[in-house]
Amino acid sequence: MENLDQIKTEVLEAVVAATDSKALDDIRVSALGKKGSITSLMKNMKDLTPEERKETGQKLNLIKDEVAQAIDARKTELADTELNARLMAEKIDVTLSVRPEHTGTVHPVSQTIDEAIAIFGEMGFSVAEGPNIEDDWRNFGALNIGPEHPARQDHDTFYLPREQDGNRMVLRTHTSPVQIRSMQEKGAPIRIICPGRTYRCDYDATHTPMFHQIEGLVIDEKTHFGHLKGCLIDFCKAYFGVDDLPVRFRPSYFPFTEPSAEVDIGCTRKDGEFKIGAGDDWLEILGCGMVHPKVLENCGIDSSKYQGFAFGMGIERIAMLKYGIPDLRTFYESDLRWLRHYGFKALDIPSMVGGLTR
Amino acid sequence: MKFTLSWLLEHLETDKTCDEIVEKLSMIGLEVEGVEDRSKGLETFKVAEILTAERHPDADKLQLLKVFDGEKEYQVVCGAPNARAGLKGVFATSGSYIPGLDVTLKPTKIRGVDSQGMMMSEAEMNLSDSHDGIVDLPGDVEVGARAIDIMGLSDPIIEIAITPNRGDCAGVRGIARDLAATGFGTLKPINTDPVKGMYESPIKIHLHNPADGAKACPQFAGRYIRGVKNGPSPKWLQDKLLAVGLRPISALVDVTNYFSQGLCRPLHVFDADKLNGDVHVRLAKEGETLKALDEKEYTLDADMTVVCDDTTPHALGGIMGGEASGCQDDTTNVFLECALFDPIRTAMTGRKLDILSDARYRFERGVDEAGVVDMTEMATRLILELCGGEASDLVIAGEEPQWQRTITLRKARVKQLTGVDVPESDMVRILDVLGCKLEDKGDTFDVQPPSWRSDIELEACLVEEIIRVYGYEHIEEVSLVRETNLPGIAYTPMQIKRDISRRTLVSRGLSEAVTYAFLPEKQAKLFGWSDENLRLTNPISKDLEIMRPSLLPNLLAACQRNNDRGLPNGCLFEVGPQFDGDTADKQPVVVCGVRTGQTGPRNWAQAPRRFDVFDAKADAMAVLEAAGAKVESLQVDPEGAPAHYHPGRSGALKLGPKNTLAYFGELHPGTLKKMGYKGIAVGFEIYLDAIPATKSKKTGALRPVLELSAFQSVERDFAFVVDRDVPAAKIIQSAKTADKKLISDVTIFDVYEGENVEAGKKSVAISITLQPTTDTLTDEQIQTVSDNVVASVAKNTGGELRG
């Protein structure tokens, strides 16, 4: 029976020594195969006495199981080693860059308009639009700006050649003609905002011949100056994301509103650094007022029954203030470096519930 | 509008400080643009007298001064040529900071002699650039007094912006009145007592107003003053004018400026000896000329008002006097003019001749319509006081206009419009101080606005006056309440399409640009412009002259600029108007984009390729799909794109033969070359408003029922050899029609020309998906469909199955 133990020892040693699955398989065949050493011993048991057979059989079975287990264990071990070797061979340099992907950017003007709409939309405003080329009457006359009104000189209007009944075509100098169109078409009550391109014949460091405005109009039977204040203070706080933003209304003059106001927000200018919020200084950001009764009448709205407010502000201006964009002229230069730096991602969609600004 | 604090206090009795006044002005609509405190940093300098002046022992150009500042004597070395014994100037002791030099004085030795301070020039005091010498004060000033007090520098200069409706505040008195209305003190009275005439004016006034322009000059008062002595005006007057930026000229001229600035009353003084006969006010004759006080010669037209003598014009009414009859130092007899001129005519004339004068500024905003006589009296009195002479009787032509009007103010209206309960007593007080006459009618006031407030026309104007003066800060803010519990959709359907197009393109790698709506004529022509109604009459420059017929040229120009900066591979788009005409329906908003260069930078894993027409087509299709167009129904018209596209590499995307939704393609190399664009560019133009509405009202958001087949689909591939010019779309269409029910999809996976394919032909390989819905397909069924596909393609395209 020393023979048995010797065989077992030899086989187990061989199993441990096997370095690949092929060698291991050879060992399995030589020990447990049809003609294998252990199989042969089991075959040879017929020559033994029943007692010897029983004893040897038990012993052989144990050895057989032990060997089979050892082979399995070694097999797993070898497979792991081989896999590890393969994986090491497959190693690549993951510090290499990814394949180029391309995403563009949303222009700050579009994003700012979307932000404003998100806020005003929440207050029940809807958006109205109109043409860029307007007639003189809708741009000026209907707004109580007569042909010789001094305010007209401030507007630096671009003119086009066509004229009908003394009514020249102009590039709109503000989006107010959209308010006129809306009032003419829908009448009162009305609650709209009008974002869009506007044009003035002016070009220097702080003026470009084209820029954008957003105007608002609320007409009903009860809206008063207090609502105008509430609406714009709510807007300014939400847009700039400053809950305690001081907002100040100062009397001013526009031909189409009465009373009229200019609106300042609080700011600080310390050591050349500009910051919006409670501080020792003010910054003018928009104009507004109660709609002039003549404007209502010009649009066929009964000014003895209806009243309301209008406001207007420059999109680029509020974008520059919020995002720290230093130069107005760069908005229209389409410099890819600028667009990438100041632009917004496709999925940065402003909303009051999802967040206005990421 | 500039004024000094002391000038304001001539009209306003108040105990408020300068800071309080400045703060208040902005809050009543007279926006303060700046406050200049000229005394800042000069407070410690004293008036000192030079007792003796001797030559410096070691320097020709220096003097040794003995200076007394009221307390002590100092030795000063001075290089100023005007330094002399007896001069009274401004002295800075050692240790003082000299603002104009930005240095702190130290006791020093100059060429061996101790200098214990310096006599200052205006430049050293930062008052002017004048280095002519040291400040030379009048001989009667008190030695030892603060220089800023003596020099009138302790008087802050306030500058305010005046809105176009507040012509009355173009005079200091108007500003004082507004402040008084807020409770900031009281308005001081002015003396308008008549000056007794000594004789009859030898010059009479004749108004020749045209019948249709009666307001050209409704009223004109004048007065002859003989024996005046002109010359420099007194210091108090000069200081005032200098402080607000007006150059003192002579007593007679300075008086007119003083009235203009202080009382918003432009005047004119003619040298009466230069006038030939009487004064006439009439419209100018076409082509008549006038050399004005600005020494420029103006050619006039028949819409302009002129003040003439019997033969020639001597002034542009309400704008500027003429040079010929202007007052000189030797002027002895004068004729004073105080008149009303039509605001509109004045504005038009000023604009036509491009003259911005203080008189025009005031007349075009409207001056006090009732003040002509009073102001003539006041001005006469001041001229007599400053220049002596004898005044004639007053000469008046025309009538004071009918400016009186009554506006009904409902007391409740103030609260209705502003939301504030302004006490009735405050309403009365405010309107009263502003100059209105009030009559209490119970629920209303009858209000007569003053003659200097032509801007007050309606009830709303009165509400504005009350709340403006009462204070906007008293208006309580009320948040807007929505008419509905939940917010509705704010965007129009069109804007939703635009926004989704924008964000689709951004996600596809294009950056949004915003470019001007106008461009140079040359570029406009390349993109089909011809309508002269779209040429700006007054462009900023020739490069910004024509309303753009397409968004492409601006984007191409931008890509070229980026390329020049070393940023090739530009992909830009814009969402904005294109101008097909000047009417509202001819200004569609277009989604337009260009891709230039390659798909990206060189990369170790993926080689870039040049953008081609299919990139532009993919962009267009993606946008149309996102915007809600049925892209599966789109037809591609290879001949449909405009001339600025490559004729063989472009197309139109249509729904039906007449409705074009988009163009795409490679841009025409000829067009690009003429644009100055180097290289190849592809682009697209999408007309969102051409997309038909898809959402039917009946089904709303409901999707069709999803029918998923339980049976496996089968794919079969075919390769057809067809003529080279057979469009792929036609092969697909032909294959689909072979069995519309069973064939769920047809795709092209290979197109090949070359070896093994006959010249002029191409091989097109298609993959067909068969999707049974009732049973698993049998081999026979598959064979039948396959045969039908081959037959249909052969019939419609002449294609043969490739062997």
Characterization of this structure:
The complex is a heterodimer of chains A (358) and B (803). Chain A is α+β, with helices and mostly antiparallel strands. In chain A, 41% of the residues lie in helices and 23% in strands. Chain A has twelve helices and eleven strands. Chain A has helices spanning 2-17, 21-32, 37-43, 50-89, 108-122, 136-139, 150-153, 176-186, 225-240, 293-298, 315-323, 336-342, and strands at residues 126-127, 133-135, 159-164, 167-171, 190-199, 210-220, 247-254, 257-270, 273-276, 281-291, 307-314. In chain A, strands 1, 5, 6, 7, 8, 9, 10 and 11 form an eight-stranded mixed beta sheet that branches. Chain A has a three-stranded antiparallel beta sheet with strand order 2-4-3. Chain A is rod-shaped. The mean pLDDT of chain A is 91. Chain B contains 19 helices and 41 strands. In chain B, the strands form twelve sheets. Chain B has a seven-stranded mixed beta sheet with strand order 29-32-33-37-36-35-34, sandwiched between helices. A five-stranded antiparallel beta sheet of chain B has the order 6-5-4-7-12. The longest helix of chain B is centred in the last third of the chain and has 19 residues, at 779-797. Chain B has six domains: 2-38 and 156-187, Phenylalanyl-tRNA Synthetase, Chain B, domain 1; 46-150, OB fold (Dihydrolipoamide Acetyltransferase, E2P), CATH 2.40.50; 205-398, Phenylalanyl-tRNA Synthetase, Chain B, domain 3 (3-Layer(bba) Sandwich); 407-474, 2-Layer Sandwich (Phenylalanyl-tRNA Synthetase, Chain B, domain 1), CATH 3.30.56; 493-690, Bira Bifunctional Protein, Domain 2 (BirA Bifunctional Protein, domain 2, 2-Layer Sandwich), CATH 3.30.930; 714-801, Ferrodoxin-fold anticodon-binding domain (Alpha-Beta Plaits, 2-Layer Sandwich). Chain B is of the alpha+beta class. At the A-B interface, helix 5, strand 1, helix 7, strand 3 and strand 5 of A face helix 7, helix 10, helix 12, helix 13 and strand 29 of B.
